[in-house]
Amino acid sequence: MIRRSTLWVVLLAGCATAPAETPVADAASGGEQAQPDGRQGATIYDKWWAALGIDFQPDDPATPAADGKGGPNGDGTLNDADGNAMLNGGHDYRLKNLFGWDLRGGDGIYGAAYHAKPYVLPVNLLAVAWTREQMTERLTAGGDGVPAYGQVLDAGQLAQVVEFVFDVREGRLPRPDQIWELSEGTPKSYRLRAGGDVARGAQVLSDQCASCHGADGRGFLIDERYSLGSHARQKSYEDWLKMIGGQPGTSMGGQLPPGDDGAAHAAWILDVLAALCDRQAFPTGDASAGDAADGDARCGGYLK
Ligand code: HEC
Q1: pLDDT class for 161, splitting at 50, 70, 90?
Q2: CA distance 47 to 297
Q3: In this predicted structure, what is the pLDDT of residue 27?
Q4: Which range (8-17, 122-131, 239-248, 278-287) has the least confidence?
Q5: Architecture of domain 180-302
Q6: Is 95 in the pocket of ligand 1 (CB under 6 A)?
Q7: Domain residue spans in the chain?
Q8: Of the candidates 81, 82, 86, 265, which has an alpha carbon nearest to the alpha carbon of residue 171?
Q9: CA 71 to CA 57: how far, in whole Å?
Q10: Of the residues 39, 208, 211, 242, which should be mutated to test ligand 1's pocket, given the most ligand atoms within 8 Å of the CB?
Q11: If residue 3 lies in a helix (H) or strand (E), which one and from where to where?
């Protein structure tokens, strides 16, 4: 965002007749000067308020009162397409909750056959016949269970989310099913795909992750309960997305190498997640959330 507004200051300063559009509107049109960034879109998809530093705390769905912070109503609720507060809908405000970590909505990991999340929508973003414009319109104005994100995200930010989805759809970013497959009835309903190169992944971890996470992934606890290894062995269906844009609101930015070869990026992520399946090299330590036991399906054949 900083980059784009800086750019516009420069552009407007050098322009005798400034264009009528706001910078945000121009970013949404995908003009050459302000291409939306699908990697940044991944973190907005994950947790928009943390990714963008927006002062928002979702209404707690477990309590009857609207007891959050920020948003159009000031209380951590968002509105539906008709302008009514989606009270007690806290889980419905993260895009990843509505459409799942694999973007497949009710067909995917949050669907009835797998995690059966009550708030997942029956829209598979990787298959639905929406154009970019239709997806932008739905996210902006809301409808059919989607809140009107246009009240909290600007057009440029929404364009990044749409770019992310289309980058995945069109092969510029990895597709989740290139990294892990759904697996009914096994822990967390997924397993890593075969074919990962553990040695290559271990090299990436040492070169690129150890400076923060420590050589064995125990530099600090994740969510106060996991080591890096124990998180990846139990939640790779989330972690694949973090490799693209980073962990929203933390010092960890996107980790993927540059380029737009989604299949190569998927292989890179699979290598890293496969390497993290080594319980000796990346131990749990005293992290309280436990670890994958022998025979756990999530790591596929990589569990050591
Ligand atoms: C600049 C420091 C930094 C670098 C480099 C870094 N991370 Fe992180 N990572 C973090 C921080 C900070 C968190 C957030 C911890 C938390 O949320 O409790 C995090 C979180 C994570 C998570 C957990 C995400 C979740 O769902 O909670 C994973 C997985 C992860 N990192 C993997 C990696 C991998 C793999 C690499 C290298 C390719 C890497 N990180 C590089 C700092 C870093």
Answers
A1: very high
A2: 28
A3: 38
A4: 8-17
A5: Orthogonal Bundle (1.10)
A6: no
A7: 1-35, 36-170, 180-302
A8: 265
A9: 8
A10: 242
A11: helix 2-13
- pLDDT for 47 equals 98
**Local structure of residue 182 (DSSP, 8 states):** E
Task: Give the separation between CA 247 and CA 134, rounded to whole angstroms.
Answer: 28
Task: Kindly state if the Cβ of 269 falls inside 6 Å of ligand 1.
Answer: no
Q: Which helix (H) or strand (E) segment is 190 a member of? A: strand 190-192
Nearest CA to ligand 1 atom 29: 239
Tokens found for residue 242: 């973090």
Mean pLDDT lowest among 64-68, 146-150, 242-246: 64-68
Lookup: tokens for 244: 């693209």
Secondary structure letter of residue 294 according to DSSP: T
In angstroms, the CA 79 to CA 84 distance is 5
Q: What confidence tens digit (pLDDT) does each residue in 212-231 have?
A: 999 999 999 999 999 999 99
Ligand 1 pocket check: which of 43, 207, 209, 211 to mutate, most ligand atoms within 8 Å of Cβ?
A: 209
Candidates 12, 37, 34, 17; CA nearest to 25 is 34
Strand (E) or helix (H) holding 52 = helix 38-52
